[in-house]
Amino acid sequence: MPDLYQTRAPRASDIPFLAAIAEETLFPGEMIAGMIAPTLNGEGDDIWRVVTRGTDVVGFAFAQPEAMTEATWNVRAIAVVPDLHGAGAGTVLIKAMEDALSAARLIVIDTTQSPEQGRARRFYAARGYTHVATIPAFFGPDEDKVTFTKLRG
């Protein structure tokens, strides 16, 4: 039986789907084209992964190296269409990102304390990420930064 989800590098034709997913889950979708352009042009160090189900793009993740660190990467976004939350697409996606970051010594993922991000915080913890810090009012007056990490070999 074939795997339900597949991961791959992004394509320019994915941009409208990634924008719609971003808009529905994380941030304004119009930001996607500019964020992903360097990767699509073979420039920069960002790593992107797309998760598909059949021919449908159902999620994405991207990571960037942290400046002035030794092999530390920050997963800046991981998003899956809401209809598939809890259906395994996010697990496949985070595994693909971890595989792509095989040389990373430390992986960092930031989220917020908001109730809407409670599922994300549980997701990271269940996949071996440790809650290491909460910075009050980081993103805004009422939005704390909640940081998870995974130290690797």
Note down, in words, how this protein is organized:
This protein is an alpha+beta fold and 153 residues long. The protein has 4 helices and 7 strands. It has a single domain, classed as Gcn5-related N-acetyltransferase (GNAT) (Aminopeptidase). Strands 1-2-3-4-5-7-6 form a 7-stranded mixed β-sheet, with helices on both faces. A hairpin with a 2-residue loop joins β6 and β7. It is globular, with a radius of gyration of 15 Å. The mean pLDDT is 95.
Spatial shape = globular
What's the CATH topology label? Aminopeptidase
N-to-C series of helices and strands: EHHEEEHEHEE
Q: Would you identify the CATH architecture?
A: 3-Layer(aba) Sandwich
End-to-end distance: 33 Å
Domain module tally = 1
Class inferred from helices and paired strands:
alpha+beta
- The strands making up the biggest β-sheet line up spatially as 1-2-3-4-5-7-6
- List low-pLDDT spans: none
Number of DSSP helical runs: 4
- Class, according to the CATH hierarchy? Alpha Beta
Please state the CA-atom Rg, rounded to the nearest Å.
Answer: 15 Å
User: Could you tell me the strand content as a percent range?
Assistant: 35-45%
How many β-strands, per DSSP? 7
- CATH superfamily (homologous) name: Gcn5-related N-acetyltransferase (GNAT)
Helix coverage percent of residues? 25-40%
